[in-house]
Amino acid sequence: MAHTDSAPGDTGTSGNAGTEEATTAGGHAGPGAVWIVGAAGQLGTALTRRAPRGIGVHGLTSADIDVTDAASVRAALAGLSAGDVVINASAYTAVDKAEEEPERAAAVNTDGPAHLAAVAEAAGAWLIHVSTDYVFDGPAAGSAGNGVAPRVTPYEPADSDSVTTSPTVYGATKLAGERAAVAAAPSTAVVRTAWVYTGGPDSPDFVGTMRRLEAARDTITVVDDQTGSPTYAVDLADGLWELARRGPRAGSPTGAGEILHATNAGALTWWEVAQAVFAEVGADPDRVRPCTTDEFPRPAPRPAYSVLSPASWVAAGLTPLRDWRQALHAAVSESSVSGSQVPESPASDTPESESEVTEDTSVIDDTLVSGDAQ
Fold it and tell me: Which parts of this chain are annotated as the region Disordered (predicted)?
């Protein structure tokens, strides 16, 4: 377990005050200690590096905690105190593999948040649980959508209220995990995000993969019928720190938590993301060719449209994440200057990943099929 009493933080890039003291305009004194579960993943690493000064940070990796085991969770969080914050950046994110081992996916994505929430509730701490755009049940891309027209309106948090099950095991277990966490700790804040990346040349995420393929191949082909919002891990981390400093939602007699959506602004397809990456590194975007999801079927269906509305985030008094173009430019330029800024691969710590941002790409010959990074 990594612990720092006063994390230095990096220079702010997202518009959120990642290095400010732990106070808010509303007078909340900020959190006590912050416990980051999944600290070796992309998001967990970004959270650790972006920690505001003056906050004690406990980073928990899979070597420190097994979220599927209630006893392990209790032991790892034995030092949790009232006023502390637990940020759960852990998840089983292998979308296709989850179809083959739903029990394992459920243990991590459903039981894990429930165990964390129960311990947080007992200690008087607050859980921030990171979730995904895959919880919704909109039409799938390609023929898996059965001819249903794709959604064109960004999802609001309440749109999940009527969802009984997601089309994928991964999404279904994540939705169940949200509900289990809130049931165990009603003050839990659920933060859904999507298409998260770090973007370094060695990063396993979609942007990093595009950078490597640009250097290795003349052309690549990327799906152009899946629409979402790419989200820079640094920006998401800064947003989560702002939320942690703000504290639990006030004014609710029941102490009910909230569901928030946090992505960089804008919506585009994977093909458009790939073209933008090529442009950022000075390559010809026309070297990226579009294809359909049907051309490369996968075990788990992919949503045709999974854009998340930022309205809930703004209504909560939080700083909107910047436009995806600005974020991508920052990610590519910053990682090009200093390779040390690239987080370690989640796969180096656990096969199931400790992050919402594990790459799930398939390259067949010269074709990149897709990149799932929730």
Answer: 1-29, 332-374
